[in-house]
Amino acid sequence: ERERQRERGKNEADDEKRELVFKEDGQEYAQVLRMLGNGRCEALCIDGNKRLCHIRGKMHKKVWIASGDIILVGLRDYQDDKADVILKYQPDEARLLKAYGELPDNVRLNEGIAGGMDEEDDGAGDDYLEFEDEDIDKI
Prior knowledge:
The protein is built from three helices and five strands. The protein has helices spanning 2-8, 57-62, 91-99; strands at 27-37, 40-45, 50-55, 70-76, 79-88. The radius of gyration is 17 Å and the shape is globular.
């Protein structure tokens, strides 16, 4: 019984140290292509299918999802074109998933760049290049 109380008292800030969640049967990793509003987004699943994903009300309030984010979705047997967002991976978790080989190499992790799905990047970038404002002019 004590265990259950501890669960309940879990502090939300604890999220950063949460365990990495891998997909289970009926789930798939996906990358958000665009947000559609109303708690829905279009995502490209790792299996190559685009699906309309629905963000649960509970997550909707707390988790801000943007295009390019890596998410875990639950597939629906009866509607292959729709899925439910189970969780959003933090950027460091997405990198870990890639390191574990859970995400294919052609998935460009989003570091705040939306829609950068082009393939000209030959492993050139560290995923987190920070541009100071004045550097932008030199590019």
